[in-house]
Design a protein that fits this description.
149 residues, 2 domains, 3-stranded mixed sheet, elongated, OsmC-like protein
């Protein structure tokens, strides 16, 4: 896996704290920092997600991917999957994630709650590289609901 991250990146992010990541799969993702009124040279222009927001989003994508795949392999009629993530970070540098809660909303027809619980468990214990990695610094908790339809 490869990725190149460039400051500014030619996407109109200026000379603030905007960066552009070009992934090995050929995609581009912009990142920026929050404006800092006290130290403008350290702040961003708020034109794109923060890098740590992308870490959280990537983790959500990784685990949601697993859950859908596991449910499909179990021949469950899954029609939708959403994961809402809420994270807390350390107060001091490095401001790692210390707590992450993931709430899954799985939509489908006749999906047993036990199957969803098992899919989430398998993702977090065996398959989701991102959440397993973040679990080294953060307490990760999960909850879920199944919506019929």
């Amino acid at each position: 896996m490869e990725c190149t991250v460039a400051w500014g990146g030619g996407l109109g992010l200026g000379t603030g704290m905007g960066f552009v990541a070009r992934t090995g799969s050929g995609h581009v993702v912009a990142m920026d920092g929050a404006p800092d009124a006290q130290r403008p040279e350290h702040g961003g222009a708020n034109l794109a997600p923060r890098p740590m927001e992308l870490v959280l989003a990537g983790t959500g994508g990784c685990t949601a991917y697993d859950v859908v795949l596991i449910l499909r392999r179990g021949r469950h009629d899954v029609r939708g999957c959403q994961v809402q993530l809420k994270a807390e970070r350390a107060e001091t540098d490095p401001k790692v994630f210390t707590r992450i809660h993931m709430h899954f909303v799985v939509q489908g027809r006749g999906i047993p709650e036990a199957a969803v619980a098992r899919a989430i468990e398998l993702s977090h214990e065996k398959y989701c590289s991102a959440s397993i990695m973040l679990g080294k610094t953060a307490e990760i908790t999960t909850s879920f609901e199944v919506v019929e339809g």
